[in-house]
Amino acid sequence: MTAPADPRAVGPRLRMMLPEMSPLEARITGFLMNRDFDDTLPLKLVAEETGTSEAMVVKTAKKLGFEGFRDLRAAIVEYKRQPTVNLHHELEPDDSAEMIVQKVFHTSIQALQETLAILDMDAFVRAAELIYSAKQRDFYGLGGSAQIARDVAHKFLRIGVRASVYDDTHMMAMSASLLGPGDIAVAYSHSGRSAGILDAVQFAKAGGAAVIAVTNYDTGPLADLADVILCSTAQGSPLTGENAAARIAQLNIMDAVFVAVAQKSYTDAERNLARTMNAVRAKRK
Length: 285
Description:
Arc Repressor Mutant, subunit A; Rossmann fold; 5-stranded parallel beta sheet; 5 strands
């Protein structure tokens, strides 16, 4: 990892690294992310508070892409000055209905703004190209991720871009084993570690298909297998979990991909949209 240039991306990038950190590295990073401090925070205090050594703190900073502790400290201080950081607040048992609504909405807004800050535009362009030009498109998702896959497939069908959605691990594996060069598998997985998704993606890769990962972590098993990674980020509460807000961010990423794909053949997309809308218009009362 390299240190992000956009201050809004610092928090998301550090959160993404947590699953790949050792317990000591995660303890140091968690302390810095959850503690209020300024540019005078001593290295010695961080080591004492986390029960580690000063050398371990510096090593962790370098693993996170910074030259040393001072650079990491400055980056986190700048990140915490961003308005987006103050949007997220934990849900409490005695929150009023108004407070619940405000907190849930603000967490989603934060997820959208920080996802925009970390979105890899080269990956975005490549994903649109792959989906547009693919012969066969398989969308894989389990649980909540399956709902995202269905929503995206529905949008693409409206403009004549057909995709098959699979939310059963056996069906995923069977379909993925038939994919080949010129086909794509789009894997939706918040954690990027779902065994069924990984198995299907491995079959797709073995056949020569390209893989797009839509996930909350740009490191880990799914990211290692993917040709393109579209990464969301979200900070959730113990009650709602981070995947609730990440789902909103992932839907927005794919909405943007949908528009980019439609733009590649705007006349065809417009014609197909009119045809599919006419097909369902009689179903409305």
